[in-house]
Design a protein that fits this description.
The complex is a heterodimer of chains A (325) and B (545).
Chain A: H1 2-15, H2 22-25, H3 34-38, H4 91-94, H5 109-114, E1 118-128, E2 142-157, E3 160-177, E4 180-200, E5 203-222, E6 227-232, E7 236-237, E8 243-262, E9 265-282, E10 284-291, E11 305-311, E12 314-324
Antiparallel strand pairs in A: 1-2, 1-12, 2-3, 3-4, 4-5, 5-6, 5-8, 6-10, 7-8, 8-9, 9-12, 10-11
Chain B: H1 4-12, H2 15-30, E1 48-50, E2 54-59, E3 64-69, E4 77-82, E5 87-92, E6 98-103, E7 118-123, E8 129-134, E9 141-144, E10 150-154, E11 165-170, E12 179-182, E13 192-195, E14 199-200, E15 206-207, E16 209-213, E17 217-222, E18 231-234, E19 246-252, E20 262-268, E21 273-280, E22 292-299, E23 306-312, E24 315-322, E25 327-331, E26 338-342, E27 349-352, E28 366-370, E29 377-381, E30 393-396, E31 404-407, E32 416-420, E33 426-431, E34 436-441, E35 448-451, E36 457-461, E37 465-472, E38 477-487, E39 489-494, E40 500-509, E41 516-524, E42 534-536
Antiparallel strand pairs in B: 1-2, 2-3, 3-4, 5-6, 6-7, 7-8, 9-10, 10-11, 11-12, 13-16, 14-15, 16-17, 17-18, 19-20, 20-21, 21-22, 23-24, 24-25, 25-26, 27-28, 28-29, 29-30, 31-32, 32-33, 33-34, 35-36, 36-37, 37-38, 39-40, 40-41, 41-42
Classes of the chains: A mainly beta (325), B mainly beta (545).
């Protein structure tokens, strides 16, 4: 049951790829007034240009009526903006020259990050699989995988933003079971929403829950047959895409902008370093290893070699470098 | 009360550091190596023990015995039973219901927690350890009582042990404490142990004895009272002056109505004399024993190759085969008078087949004679020995020199014997009822024969080849099968559904050092057909989790 629910959720996420909002859908040359209007939000009125500080009062003034003392030209009051959807520009931002958008001091940290909504990530992920089904394939509990991720920010407001992140993790362990060579290859495809908290312009923390599809292939070189026995995850049969099991990643992490910022000046690309940790869960599958059906060297009617069950679940951590654009 | 300094110090630890430490602890708890069982080597050759309903595979690398059983059809299940470290011997019980595994434990023991030697008894049906007896010394020899009451552990060439120590385990009581007994040594050490059946004693009691043969004497141990001193029989010197070395013992209760005529006979190496020990009425110097052992020596015409007590028309005799003079000699145990029966061939081995031949041992015995040095067999009818000894032997020329005679268990086909040859490429199935022998030809020598525990089939295999044959012992119809891998052993076991399966075991060394695999092809034993067989690989990985 839980498998079906997770699969349904995953399929829903896959099919509901982040669609541009009305603001995003608007062509660059669209009427800047149209986008905010379409969002059913109060239209922010253009702020007046920064005005020089008012002249100091003639005499001391005590009480609330005293105007603030400023020592430099104060920035304009931040405009009350509509939620910022990805690269979509609200009418006010579109009035700002493009080169200055990211530098605009009026932008909140979340909105600034969302100026470059696409994110490509590359790194490594490691998880600790304490399940005993992992033992024939590794002499320790670590499963380290190569990680490739892509994401897109599609909502930003104040210090919060929301993104959709997908990861493909692939890695293997090789070992031996009483001298018989073994190998476990694991692919993991995860896609899910990421809620970001931006306390600073170049640092944000995030919380992500990503349903995942897991494809594992266990193999063992069996000496009496001289054949290779295989067991693959088998919760879902996706035809030519193979068979998969399901799971999820629930992580918390942080991203820091390494390159792309100098003060508040941003380049075309921003480079991030990210780290996250959490728990990865996967369904448990039977480890019934059998020779391939077309393996002519294997004996006829070779029974499955049952090594129990394998559940790829445990604490995980991932470190990646990313580029947003 | 908490130390205020600690509180002060703890307050200084930032929240993020606490979280990091907690996370590190969590991750550390998840780290770890796998169980060492996955790295254990597989000992080759693999020792297997056939039981009634399962096959026990000794796995010293993991200090366990793997039990392979067949639930139904061509299914196979593996379960594991733990045994002591350093297995030195594994034997099936005489009834094939369980397997006895003797372990030396950790030697030398350097720490109190180092495992002691032990004897484990594993039930073949349930796969569980039914009893485990902790021993004090790491002995290596194991002798099992044919009647299933005793297991005796002794040294069979070990080092730094008391070679004359015997440890008696009453296996009928799982909670029994092993009893250690050191034989008085006169220079010898136990080499063979023989359990007697119940022998009538002069006081009317019936007792069983363990006969321990050393290099120079024979010792009788009363199994009904292990605290009693044993009786050591010194053997006469050979004609060449050498110390008499026992090679074989035989025993007999004597006449049912005479409690004073139980006897033990001893055959000696390179000695034409046989020693007869009579367990007669005790004298004043018996020391509380219910019998007195009286030794007589009967001279024969040559060095005997086999002895046994037989019932003849003239009464109880000790039969001794003297192949060097082409004859057998019958010794009257009461008078040591010797009679001779001539043979045409130098028969050197014999087995009583009285009941299998439809005779009664109360009247007279029938013995089957054979020899590794001559072709042919003979039936020796001891009921006509005294009157017409020359007519008592029927010789059959079968064209092979018989090296071993296998009995067929059970009542159904117990009248058949299988005659094996060490050199020929054929064997014979002998029907004792009909006094007929049926040759079974094979394509090469070097095959091994095993008889199914139910007694209805025999299996022939040449180890290291994929060819196996089944011989239906009722019809003598052979069925040859060729499986897909080389076979090292054949075991015919009863399934849980009351059918029978045959397990053809395969072993192979793996690619890595210390790697080896065990596999099995499972067929229906009563109708072996490779088109319906099933192959099971990786058996040594079974029950590892």
């Amino acid at each position: 049951m839980i498998h079906r629910l997770m699969v349904a959720g995953l399929v829903a996420l896959l099919t509901a790829a982040p669609r541009p909002s009305a603001a995003q859908a608007a062509p660059p040359d669209a009427d800047p007034e149209a986008a905010p209007a379409a969002e059913n939000e109060p239209q922010a009125s253009p702020e007046p240009e920064a005005s020089p500080p008012p002249p100091p009062p003639a005499g001391p003034v005590i009480g609330p009526g005293r105007p603030p003392i400023t020592f430099y030209p104060s920035p304009p009051e931040p405009a009350r903006q509509s939620p910022h959807f990805g690269a979509g520009e609200d009418s006010r931002l579109d009035t700002v020259p493009a080169g200055r958008r990211a530098d605009d001091p009026n932008l909140s940290p979340a909105e600034r990050v969302s100026q470059k909504p696409w994110l490509l990530m590359l790194g490594a992920r490691s998880m600790l699989v304490s399940d005993s089904g992992f033992d024939p394939f590794a002499d320790s509990n670590e499963l380290t995988q190569f990680s490739l991720g892509v994401g897109r920010s599609f909502y930003a407001r104040e210090i919060l933003s929301l993104a959709a992140i997908a990861f493909w993790d692939v890695g293997s362990r090789t070992s031996s079971a009483r001298g018989e060579p073994t190998r476990l290859l694991v692919h993991r495809l995860a896609l899910g929403p990421e809620l970001r908290l931006h306390p600073l312009t170049d640092l944000y923390g995030f919380l992500r829950f990503a349903p995942a599809l897991i494809h594992s292939e266990a193999r063992l070189e069996e000496s009496t047959t001289g054949s290779t026995y295989y067991a693959r995850s088998d919760d879902l049969d996706l035809n030519f895409l193979g068979s998969w099991s399901v799971g999820f990643d629930a992580t918390v992490g942080a991203a820091y902008e390494l390159i792309g910022t100098s003060g508040r000046h941003a380049g075309a690309l921003r480079c991030w370093i990210m780290a996250e940790g959490g728990y990865a869960w996967g369904t448990s599958g039977d480890l019934e290893l059998s020779p391939e059906a077309d393996d002519t060297s294997a004996p006829e009617r070779a029974a499955a070699l049952e090594l129990g069950t394998l559940a790829l679940r445990g604490p995980m951590a991932r470190a990646v470098v990313g580029v947003s654009f | 009360m908490q130390d205020p300094r600690f509180e002060e110090h703890a307050d200084r630890i930032p929240w993020w550091a606490r979280c990091a430490v907690s996370l590190a602890c969590l991750l550390g708890a998840g780290c770890g190596d796998r169980p060492s069982s996955w790295d254990a080597e597989v000992d080759v050759p693999v020792q297997t023990v056939g039981l009634k309903t399962s096959v026990a595979v000794v796995d010293p690398g993991l200090d366990r015995v793997l039990l392979l059983s067949a639930p139904s059809g061509r299914g196979l299940e593996a379960s594991a039973a733990p045994v002591g470290k350093n297995v030195v011997s594994a034997q099936a019980s005489p009834d094939l219901d369980s397997v006895f595994v003797l372990s030396r434990g950790v030697q030398p023991r350097r720490n109190p927690e180092d495992e002691r030697p032990s004897l484990s008894v594993i039930d073949g049906a349930s796969g569980r350890v039914s009893a485990r007896y902790t021993l004090t010394d790491p002995l290596q020899g194991l002798a099992l009582d044919p009647q299933g009451r005793w297991a005796v552990i002794f040294d069979a060439g070990g080092i730094v042990v008391n070679p004359n120590e015997l440890i008696f385990v009453d296996v009928s009581d799982p909670d029994a404490e092993p009893v250690s007994k050191t034989l008085r040594s006169f220079g010898g050490r136990p080499e063979r142990l023989t359990f007697t059946s119940e022998l009538g004693m002069p006081d009317g009691s019936r007792r069983r004895f363990l006969i321990a043969e050393t290099g120079q004497d024979v010792t009788l141990i009363d199994l009904s009272d292990l605290s009693r001193d044993e009786v050591t029989i010194f053997l006469p010197k050979t004609p060449s002056g050498q110390i008499g070395r026992p090679l074989e013992v035989a025993f007999h209760d004597g006449a049912p109505d005479d409690p004073n005529d139980a006897r033990v006979a001893v055959r000696l190496a390179n000695d034409p004399n046989v020693v007869l020990i009579e367990l007669g009425p005790p004298g004043d110097d018996a020391g509380g024993r219910p019998f007195k052992a009286t030794v007589n020596v009967a001279p024969l015409e040559g060095v005997p190759s086999a002895i046994d007590f037989v019932q003849t028309d003239g009464g109880l005799r000790l039969a001794a085969l003297v192949p060097g003079s082409l004859r057998a000699q019958l010794v009257d145990p009461a008078t040591t008078v010797v009679e001779s029966v001539s043979f045409q061939k130098p028969f050197s081995r014999m087995a009583r087949v009285t009941e299998a031949s439809g005779g009664s041992p109360q009247q007279s015995d029938v013995a089957l004679l054979w020899s590794e040095q001559a072709t042919g067999i003979a039936f020796w009818s001891l009921g006509t020995t005294s009157g017409t000894p020359f007519r008592s032997v029927d010789t059959f020329e079968i064209g092979i020199a018989v090296s071993d005679v296998k009995s067929v268990p059970g009542d159904g086909l117990g009248h058949k014997k299988i005659l094996e040859s060490a050199t020929a490429s054929e064997f014979f199935v002998l029907d004792l009822d009909a006094r007929q022998s049926f040759p079974m030809l094979t394509n090469a020598a070097g095959f091994e024969l095993t008889v199914a525990p139910d007694g209805f089939r025999a299996w022939a295999v040449r180890p290291g080849t994929p060819q196996v044959s089944s011989i239906d012992l009722s019809t003598l119809h052979p069925t040859s099968v060729e499986v897909e891998r080389d076979v090292i052993a054949v075991h015919d076991i009863e399934r849980l559904d009351r059918g029978r399966s045959v397990l053809l075991l395969h072993a192979a060394r793996g690619l890595n050092a210390g790697a080896a695999g065990l596999g099995a092809t499972v067929l229906d034993a009563q109708n072996p057909d490779t088109a319906h067989s099933r192959f099971y690989g990786g058996l040594m990985l079974g029950a590892l989790r």
